[in-house]
Amino acid sequence: MSRVLIIEDELPMRTVLGDLLASEGHRVLTAANGADGLERAIAEQPDLILLDVMMPRLDGFTLAQELRRLGRAMPILMLTAKGQVDDRVRGLDAGADDYLVKPFSGDELLARVRALLRRFQRGVATPTVLRLGEVEVDFARLEARRAGQPLHLTAKEFALLRLLAETPGEPVTRERFLDVVWGVNAFPTTRTVDTHLASLRAKVEPDPNRPRFLKTVHGVGYRLELAASFEPGSETAENLEGGKA
User: Fold this and answer.
1) What is the pLDDT of residues 126-163, one digit of tens each?
2) End-to-end CA distance of the chain, in Å?
3) By residue range, what is the domain housing residue 50?
4) For residue 211, cis peptide bond before it (omega within 30 degrees of 0)
5) pTM for this structure?
6) Are residues 142 and 213 in the same domain?
């Protein structure tokens, strides 16, 4: 299930887009202006953004440029009534991955969403081996060891670690943990995430009361400290020591 953020100031359009995407099984997030959209894109890290151009507080061109400046690589599909060639060029130069001129058909929109998600997902490197001090986690085999001895992790704990390892150093919100690890139909609470992270810390941290690797981002969620290292495959481990705190 992909998470799609709709940044659109017109409520009827947000509603139509949201219903269309939900019918395809996507998890829909929304923002009614550019400033709120930028804040939510950074916090939620959606899999794709549908972005209007003409909006209050922050226009779509500026928003896309800011996301790219911050290193956010999620695909952006611009939706706008501005269909001139120079407008499309400006949108793509600002950081958009595709550009769809209003009015458009729902089928075409969904086709472009599917294409962008496929393209992006092929480019995401998911680590297969994660090392946290004396703990080694093999995601391919779903095995873990601590100081060479078998370490039991639940399926949920493997999934939590994998999600953190996909974006080391960046915060993952509790809501994203719920969406990805539990699924939209499970109806857990954000407290569920905290409980599972506490259990995971007890297993992988040298001192769970002073976590070195699984850091709390207050008011947001958690992040994987860059002192960890991972292997994207059979390559030599990428050493991330010395990253920011």
Assistant:
1) 668 899 999 999 987 889 999 999 999 998 899 899 88
2) 31
3) 3-123
4) no
5) 0.62
6) yes
